[in-house]
């Protein structure tokens, strides 16, 4: 064998050895990589199992950023409704949710009408009236209706049934009517949804409450559904309510005979600070009031 051929064979052998070594290194690297990936997956599976047992992947309700706010005051545009009166908006925090607030309505019809606003069942209604009263919103305004169902309607500074502040808020304590068969007569033992002496809010459309309210001077049991959220009950001034109930009425702009013939003027309306204590009992029915 010539020296040149022998040299070529040695070079080829050396090249093959280098290729084999390189291939072996790559195979070892691949085995280590696979082993590392496998170990990592095992760790992830173990951690995932622990998290699953701990309830990490349980579905959760969305977080409401306004959940800490007890009341939501929705702005209204006074430019679209001239009857609205802008006095700002009640606070969104620090609203009492237990006890009562004393309400006093002084009219031109006799002794003041007093009531307790229930802060346990209607904290937003109580807060709104407290705020509006502090702005003298109700002072020197007329009560616009003596309704056919036995309530005095007040709180509209415009006098057309559309007035109120430049905000609204949602219903709170709306009574639930008892379910019964359509042909079944009402049970005499079932109390009315709105006993005489009830103070409730009224709005148009329902559920967009503002400043208007009702003071019931007789029991009212709606046939279809209750829509007036209750905010309190009368504690005094029943003689004044009785007098108002007997006042004659004339047709309003819509042709309904509910407008008081004689002016019923709220001279002042005040709401006091929150008073701690149990929620007031439901307003007594007409048969138990003197």
Describe this structure in words.
With 290 residues, the protein is an alpha+beta fold. It contains three helices and 15 strands. The protein has helices spanning 3-53, 123-134, 238-245; strands spanning 74-75, 84-85, 100-107, 113-118, 141-142, 145-146, 151-154, 164-165, 167-168, 198-201, 213-216, 230-236, 249-251, 257-260, 265-271. The strands form four sheets. Strands 5-15-3-4-12-10-11-7-6 form a nine-stranded antiparallel β-sheet. A hairpin with a 5-residue loop joins β3 and β4. It is globular, with a radius of gyration of 37 Å. The termini are far apart. The model is unreliable at 1-5, 47-52, 56-67 and 284-290 (pLDDT under 50).
Spell out the key features of this protein.
nine-stranded antiparallel beta sheet; 290 residues; alpha+beta; disordered N terminus; single chain; 3 helices; 24% helix; disordered C terminus; two-stranded antiparallel ribbon; 15 strands
Shape: globular
Point out poorly predicted stretches: 1-5, 47-52, 56-67, 284-290
Tell me the fraction of residues in β-strands, as a range: 15-25%
- Report mean pLDDT, rounded to a whole number: 80
How widely separated are the two ends?
138 Å
Overall SS class: alpha+beta
**Major pleated sheet:** 9 strands, antiparallel
Q: Would you report the number of β strands? A: 15
Number of helices: 3
* Integer-rounded radius of gyration: 37 Å
Question: How are helices and strands ordered from N to C?
Answer: HEEEEHEEEEEEEEHEEE
Largest sheet, spatial ordering of strands: 5-15-3-4-12-10-11-7-6
Instruction: Specify the helix fraction band.
Output: 10-25%
